[in-house]
Amino acid sequence: FLSRSGNLDPLTETYGIPFYLQYLAHWPEYFIVAEAPGGELMGYIMGKAEGSVAREEWHGHVTALSVAPEFRRLGLAAKLMELLEEISERKGGFFVDLFVRVSNQVAVNMYKQLGYSVYRTVIEYYSASNGEPDEDAYDMRKALSRDTEKKSIIPLPHPVRPEDIE
Ligand SMILES: CC(C)(COP(=O)(O)OP(=O)(O)OC[C@H]1O[C@@H](n2cnc3c(N)ncnc32)[C@H](O)[C@@H]1OP(=O)(O)O)[C@@H](O)C(=O)NCCC(=O)NCCS
Asked: What is the DSSP-derived secondary structure letter of residue 74?
């Protein structure tokens, strides 16, 4: 899984093994793999629940979503997102959020299709392997049923810097 997942696509962030193990240990319910009948990895999603309940910021977060090129446009990503949203609903989250490269047109459009909207832009959220700033992110959100007034998705008027997001 790890050797393949890191290379499903250049648009999928590659993390070290301790990072994945941390997710498996803390949020196993948020780690979902789509496997073909032959055992082949078709795609996966990993996420977590975080944020303050008191401040109505308790939410589900999508950390990574990737579908192998040969299994795309079959509705797999949409299904994985639906599962993550269901888990977040059950946990009483107010919304689901994710970060995506502003240049990743396919993913941005897909998330819009799935009901997400841009909440804010995070300047230079992504960095290159040499540590230099690389690209901005959209922080996209979708309100869950607990946020009856959809307050959590009202877009911020100004972009923020990575150090301003918790
Ligand atoms: C983005 C990605 C996860 C989509 O996976 P997928 O399983 O092919 O997506 P789905 O089949 O569930 O598509 C759902 C909807 O998104 C849109 N969509 C997905 N891929 C698209 C494409 N290449 N072109 C246009 N629309 C697309 C469509 O509206 C699609 O619905 P439709 O097929 O009924 O028209 C996949 O392309 C991928 O792994 N990309 C590289 C990694 C990445 O960018 N991850 C997200 C980073 S946050």
From this structure: S
- CB neighbours (10 Å) of residue 96? 26
Beta 117-127 vs 59-67: how paired, if at all?
unpaired
Point out the ligand 1 atom lying closest to the alpha carbon of residue 81.
12
pTM value surpassing 0.90: yes
Distance CA 127, CA 135 (A): 7
Tell me if 86 CB under 6 Å of ligand 1.
Answer: no
Q: Tokens 């082949």, residue?
A: 40
Tokens of 142: 């979708």
pLDDT along the chain (166 residues), means of 10: 57 80 96 94 96 96 95 97 98 98 97 98 93 95 98 98 90
